[in-house]
Amino acid sequence: MSRLWHWSRRCSRIFTRPNSSLASQLNSVTDADVLHFSKILSSPSSVLSILPSISTSPEELDIYNNDWMGKYFGKSTTVLKPKTTEEVSQIVKWCNDKRIGIVPQGGNTGLVGGSVPLRDEVILSLSNMTQVRSFDPISGILVTDAGCILQSLTDYVAPHNHIMPLDLGAKGSCQIGGNVSTNAGGLRLLRYGSLHGSVLGLEVVLPDGSILDQLTTLRKDNTGYDLKQLFIGAEGTLGIITGVSILTPPAPQASNNVILALPRFENVLPLYKTVKRQLSEILSAFEFIDRTAYDLAVKHGQGRALSEEEVEGAECFVLVETSGGRREHDEEKLNDLLESLLEAEEPLINTGVLAQNPAQFSSLWALREGVTEAVSKEGKAYKYDISVPLSTFKECVDLTRERLRSKGLLNGDQVKAVIGYGHVGDGNLHLNVIAKAYTPEIQDALEPFVFELVASHRGSVSAEHGIGAMKTHALHYSKDETSIAWMKKIKAIFDPNGIMNPGKVLE
Ligand code: FAD
Ligand code: MLT
Ligand code: ZN
């Protein structure tokens, strides 16, 4: 036993080098590098650089250097937009030889600062890799370039009566490679499970430039270690995903949704239990929005699902979606549910509005999906994407609000609102603190407070958005020392020079 311990200690010294010290050994891109990249890439427009040989205007690089929230800003001089896996491979090989850091970038919709450089790493954008490689309408297996936008894949499979197994508010911009790299959850996870289940295979360019071809289309493959799982949720720290094979489910024949107004948060849990029991196999989403989040969505034009009278006295709202095989059957079940909820002796809901047509169906979803956009219009968001027991959702929001109040920060001038929304079915609460500006005072009031709160419930500091640059220091609240040490060993084996998305996920 003790020999084994010594052995692993030695190995950690050999393999585990702190990412931050490696990051400081990385080199900036030179004009000579840019000239080399121009030779590798087939099209001149695939290289953007403010260095002399290309002289792109710095403003053109802004959209790649700045994140969606306006919270993280990189200083990259050079953005590369390869068109093929071979081009990606050659870029990565060069960067590895020259010790240049690389930030893989998809749609740049990530919410944890993972998709922009911390310094002046090269940004490798997948946005020119947009070919669907194959689709089998019998099995529903789609093989595609990593740069395809989620919405365009949804549109691609729709005429074949299939849907993508995931859906999220950023679908018009995020890419399937980014989705896989963040292990995005979203609005369909309750029904179709996580990407760890629906992704069948990946093609990945490893940090030494070699191509790992695991782009299998097999549903079953038990031939040893399932390496692709390591890249799902790795946030670009282990390699660059260039191709994805994914199982798409058949499109439901009928979908309905309903928004329910609840007088008290305490009713959410019993409501979920009732809804699950009554709708059983046709339940496909159960999403939660607290009153402040709802009001914000309405204020910023994301739609209005209920009238003034209907929202009166409501503490929170739940959006329920059904997806099934026969419209009449599903509608009957949903109507029975609504009736029994409204006629109960002690009703769990104040009221409910059932979408009557596809336009209303979409507008109910737009309201839920629009919360993120509304938050960003209201101010600067501190976004905590946590897994905690469902019964503690409200407590987490209330305690955070109290904390800010006790520090004198909840005064409209600094913090404007504290809201909660999210995926009840997945135990995932989005706790958002909306401020006028990002300030160290607010940050210090929130951290480690929120992370300690999550740890006290044995929760996760990241349910679906990832760690990125935002939570590297908080990883230990959800992962023990042994797990983090093994994560570092894995990182060091794949990327001994620390070029791949430096400073993300692991400190
Ligand atoms: P990016 O933001 O470009 O990158 C995200 C991370 O993945 C970075 O670390 C990046 O380096 C890495 N990466 C990107 N592409 C690759 C690649 N090909 N190979 C290797 N690494 C790569 N997330 C959810 O989980 N659920 C939601 O419901 C949800 N809703 C959202 C709604 C809105 C309005 C917004 C703005 C964001 C939302 N997000 C959600 C967060 C975000 O959209 C997802 O994390 C998404 O999967 C990121 O995809 P992307 O292509 O934009 O990746
Ligand atoms: C959502 O569920 O709306 C997304 O994860 C985005 C967010 O947290 O705002
Ligand atoms: Zn979410």
Short synopsis of the structure:
By secondary structure, the chain is α+β, with helices and mostly antiparallel strands.
Structural features, described:
This is FAD-binding domain-containing protein. InterPro entries: FAD-bd_oxidored_4_C, FAD-bd_PCMH, FAD-bd_PCMH-like_sf, FAD-bd_PCMH_sub1, FAD-bd_PCMH_sub2, FAD-linked_Oxase-like_C, FAD-oxidored/transferase_4, Oxid_FAD_bind_N. Keywords: FAD, Flavoprotein, Oxidoreductase. It comes from Lentinula lateritia. Pfam families: FAD-oxidase_C, FAD_binding_4. The protein is of the alpha+beta class. It has four domains: 2-128, Uridine Diphospho-n-acetylenolpyruvylglucosamine Reductase, domain 2, CATH 3.30.43.10; 132-247, Uridine Diphospho-n-acetylenolpyruvylglucosamine Reductase, domain 3; 254-373, 2-Layer Sandwich (Alpha-Beta Plaits), CATH 3.30.70.2190; 379-465, Alpha-Beta Plaits (2-Layer Sandwich), CATH 3.30.70.2740. Helix content is 36%, strand content 19%. The chain has helices spanning 2-15, 19-24, 31-40, 58-65, 85-98, 150-157, 176-182, 189-192, 195-198, 228-231, 268-279, 291-299, 308-311, 327-343, 358-369, 371-378, 393-406, 440-446, 449-456, 481-494; strands at 47-49, 78-80, 102-105, 122-125, 132-136, 141-145, 199-205, 211-214, 240-247, 254-262, 283-290, 316-324, 351-354, 380-387, 415-423, 428-435. It has a seven-stranded antiparallel β-sheet, sandwiched between helices. Strands 5-6-9-7-8 form a five-stranded antiparallel β-sheet. The chain has a four-stranded mixed β-sheet with strand order 1-2-4-3, with helices on both faces. The longest helix is centred in the middle third of the chain and has 17 residues, at 327-343. Bound molecules: flavin-adenine dinucleotide, D-malate and zinc ion. The site of zinc ion (ZN) has 5 residues, from strand 15. The site of D-malate (MLT) has 7 residues, from helix 16 and strand 14.
